[in-house]
Design goal:
It is a single chain. With about 80 residues, this protein is an alpha+beta fold. The chain contains 1 helix and 4 strands, in the order αββββ. A hairpin with a 2-residue loop joins strand 2 and strand 3. The termini are far apart.
Length: about 80
């Protein structure tokens, strides 16, 4: 992985951590990432789990031009704060 990709993943993880904390009130750990082909989208997907419970998997897709979380997914039993 290039330094540029490492930096993108780090920034995407920070954006996703903030998203999950503000939206669901949860802390998460990331275990993987995948870049969507750049000719299709400037997006990186992140996978992981709710901190302290590896069975509660999470997923996010982050636009790495804006570092905006486009999609976030959590288990059904975790409800949004608002």
């Amino acid at each position: 992985m290039s330094n540029e990709q490492k930096e993108i993943v780090q920034k995407a993880e920070i954006a996703s951590l903030t998203y999950f904390k503000e939206t669901y009130g949860i802390d998460v750990e990331f275990t993987g990432h995948k870049f969507i082909p750049s000719d299709l989208s400037h997006t990186v997907s992140l996978t992981g789990y709710v901190k302290g419970n590896k069975t509660k998997e999470i997923f996010s897709m982050v636009d790495y031009d804006t570092y905006e979380v486009k999609t976030g997914s959590v288990p059904e039993d975790i409800k949004p704060l608002k």
